[in-house]
Amino acid sequence: MCSGGFAKCLGITLMPLAIVCVLCNILLFFPSGQPVEQDHITKQVWYFGGILGSGVLMIFPALVFLGLKNNDCCGCCGNESCGRRFAMLSSILFAAVGVAGAGYSVVVSSVAINQGPKCVVSKNGTNDVWGTPFGNGDYLSNTTLWKLCIEPSGVVSWHLSLFSVLLVMGLIQVALCAVQVVNGLLGAICGDCCGCCGGVSISVETIN
């Protein structure tokens, strides 16, 4: 496969991952699907790891990867001035942006999973006391601690599930962008279509 075509495949894969991350971050603003006051939302949600890191900063590299192959890859054979090598080289910079964005989302998600959600930890008459009862990640292995969160109902599983999705998606995005760094280097050094060029050369020699 030509390096441009491979980059396009990466871009097609990154787009839905970015959309999923944005949706997960938005859902985190509604613990257990319930609207709450801003002060009652976990602070890591406001860091926009899914919206900014794995979302917006990932869409730009994905669009660049999609545009690297916009015509027949064999059309660049023997024409180094067509800019294909430079395009593959520049894609490395966008891949680095993607790695940084996804890495940011991974860090935020990891911290959020470790600290747990913000929830009602006790009721004092008509006033609910909100807090973060988990801070060392013990609740991950001891589900009985989840009872410390009185409301919203199911907030722990909601928090853990969505941030876990963000963590996994971020790791996948980092891996895909790292692959594009290698692919971009090969495309810049060998040309976008080394395999195609070789095939054309063999065909020409056979005809002769």
Automatic annotation (TrEMBL):
Its main location: membrane. It is a multi-pass membrane protein. Keywords: Membrane, Transmembrane, Transmembrane helix. It is found in: Membrane. The chain crosses the membrane at residues 12-33, 45-66, 86-107, 156-179. One of its GO terms (biological process) is negative regulation of type B pancreatic cell development. Belongs to the L6 tetraspanin family. This is Transmembrane 4 L six family member 4. GO terms for cellular component: membrane. It comes from Labrus bergylta.
